[in-house]
Each structure stands twice: as C-alpha cells, then as structure tokens.
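can u do me a favor
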C-alpha cells in the first residue's frame, strides 16, 4: 500500500472559508468525506478515517490535509497514539486490518492484512500504553501488539458473547467491558485479569481519572470504582440504556442514552444533576464537556450546546444525524455530519 500523494484531490473537498453557507453557525471549515471513525485530536492535528480506508491527518485550525494513507477497508473506532522512540498512530478497519503509521508524516511502520489469514473483524478502536497497542476483536479476545513490530505479545479471552467496545489504558492497567456485562481490570504487561465487576447489560468502554475508573452499561447503570483495592464508590441507574462511554471533566460525568437523552451526574457521588431530551434518536456519540458546556450529537439531527451546570440549551446546529464521537480543542468543536465540520463556539 502506498501513501496517497495527490493532496489536491483530497483538498478539493475542504472548504477553508465556509462563510457563505454557514457563517451564522460559526463554521470555520468543512471537509466533505465519508468519515467512519471517531475523531482523535493530538497536538495540532485531527486524525480520523473514512469508508474506503483512507487515514487522515488534518490541521485542526485550517482543515488542510497534512498527510493521508490508504489502508483499505472501512476505518472505525478512535485512532490510538503512542509516544515512544518513534511517535505512532494506530488505525483499525472493520474487516480486521490494523495499520500503524508514523504520526509525523503518515509513513507505514507496519500493518496487518486480514486477507493473509483467517481472522475476526473489529468493532471498535484501540488503546495504547507500555509500548503496546490493545485491540479487541469479534473472536472475544483482547490482543496486545508490540507497537514497533505489530507482533502479538499476549491475548486475553473474554466471554462467549464477545468484545465489542475498545479497552481503556491507564497506569499499567487495562480496563475492559464485555457484551455480557463483565467488567475487567487487566495487567497491561502480562494480560492477567487482576479484578473486576459487572453490570446487567453490555459494558461500554470505561473512563479513568483521579485514581477511579467509571463504566456505564446498557442496563442503565453508571458505576465508579476506586482502582486501588477495587473499592466500589457508587452505582447510579439513569433509567435508560446507556450507550456511550462516560465523559468526565470538571467534576461531572456525561453519558448518552438509547432513547435520546444526555444525563449529567456528579463525579463524586453519582447524583443525577440534570438530563436533556434531544427528542430525535439515540445519543450514541459520546458527549463532550468543555469550557463550561456539554456538546451532544444525537443520531437524529441537531448538535446541542448545553450549559454544563444547568443543562440549559445555549445553541443548536442542524445536521443530518451523528453516531460518531466528536472532539473539542481550543474553542473549536469537531464532529462528523456529512464529513468533518469545525464549529467555533
């Protein structure tokens, strides 16, 4: 596979000045491509992939293409970045393809092509740490791959219903939810299960901060566990299937539900502070908390900008519907609504 060099063809789809069509909504730039992965913000660039397997690095302020690489196969999940001897970024494809690129120039470091042998597809993104990338596959296994070579270091076997969401990494540990409701804490170096817990439904990708791990489930529960000694802190049921990973910032937690709500809880005790009814489809894209606001992207249409303390509606932006995780950096909200849109607050 070769790195795509014809940036002019790609850049033709980038609208660097969208004033005529979108000035009222504060759109800085727009890139009309069939985005299929979540957006990763790292330093000055956005990283994401599309339906035909192209991996993109795009300047976050201008929307100009920094580099592209054709990995083939639909890119999914959130790309993972690992800063080591050589900065790397990992993209995965729904057909099981795994591509590791140089973060700076998009050159190939290694890749795995599933057509070379029988393998299982991938449903979500990756995590990185300890010089390893961690990938979950439909064969109910979590794979730890050497970041330099792509060679398998260890595997962890989950339950029979499969691993359908990405793992999370923090401080030498892997946090992994399973479709059958099991929550795992795994040694990142060895793949040994150290402890865990569970819920009454599928567990989404956990989130880690301040020595605690937070996980949500389709049974409506959001739980907090102190990592050291694995002490349960609180368990709140929001009365609606939670279909996103928890978003945590400034003392609050935001989750999206299957019936179109965003629910905000207190990080300390799990008390429900407020909820907002989007009224038009599941909130399967993870909410974003930033600058005293919560940004929500339901599948049915509008992007909602809400006051983080009260849940009061501040502004809306009309789209065709969003199911991919958005991102925020330096006063700009990025989401994929018919392509990538950079929306200034």
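np, heres the sequence
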């Amino acid at each position: 596979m070769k790195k795509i060099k014809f940036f002019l063809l790609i850049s033709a789809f980038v609208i660097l000045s969208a004033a005529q069509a979108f000035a009222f909504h504060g759109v800085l730039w727009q890139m009309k491509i069939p985005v299929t992965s979540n957006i990763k913000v790292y330093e000055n660039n956005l990283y994401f992939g599309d339906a035909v397997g192209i991996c993109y690095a795009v300047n976050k302020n201008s929307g100009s293409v920094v580099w592209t690489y054709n990995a083939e196969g639909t890119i999914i999940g959130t790309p993972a970045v690992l800063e080591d001897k050589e900065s790397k970024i990992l993209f995965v494809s729904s057909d099981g393809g795994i591509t590791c690129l140089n973060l700076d120039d998009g050159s190939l470091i290694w890749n795995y092509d599933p057509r070379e042998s029988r393998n299982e597809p991938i449903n979500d993104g990756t995590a990185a740490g300890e010089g390893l990338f961690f990938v979950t596959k439909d064969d109910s296994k979590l794979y730890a791959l050497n970041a330099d070579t792509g060679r398998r270091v260890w595997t962890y076997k989950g339950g029979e219903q499969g691993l359908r969401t990405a793992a999370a990494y923090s401080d030498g540990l892997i946090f992994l939810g399973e479709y059958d409701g099991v929550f795992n804490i795994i040694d990142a170096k060895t793949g040994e299960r150290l402890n865990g817990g569970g819920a009454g439904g599928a567990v989404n990708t956990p989130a880690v901060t301040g020595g605690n791990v937070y996980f949500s489930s389709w049974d409506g529960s959001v739980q907090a566990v102190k990592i050291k000694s694995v002490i349960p802190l609180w368990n709140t049921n929001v009365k609606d299937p939670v279909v996103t990973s928890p978003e945590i910032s400034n003392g609050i937690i935001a989750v999206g539900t299957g019936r179109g709500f965003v629910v905000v809880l207190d990080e300390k005790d799990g008390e429900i502070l407020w909820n907002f009814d989007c009224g038009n489809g599941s909130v399967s894209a993870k909410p974003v908390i930033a600058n005293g606001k919560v940004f929500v992207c339901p599948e049915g249409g509008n992007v909602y900008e809400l006051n983080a303390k009260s849940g009061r509606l501040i502004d809306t932006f009309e789209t065709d519907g969003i199911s991919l995780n958005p991102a925020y950096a330096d006063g700009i909200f990025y989401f994929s609504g018919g392509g990538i849109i950079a929306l200034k607050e």
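Residues 1-24 have pLDDT under 50 and may be disordered. hope that helps!!
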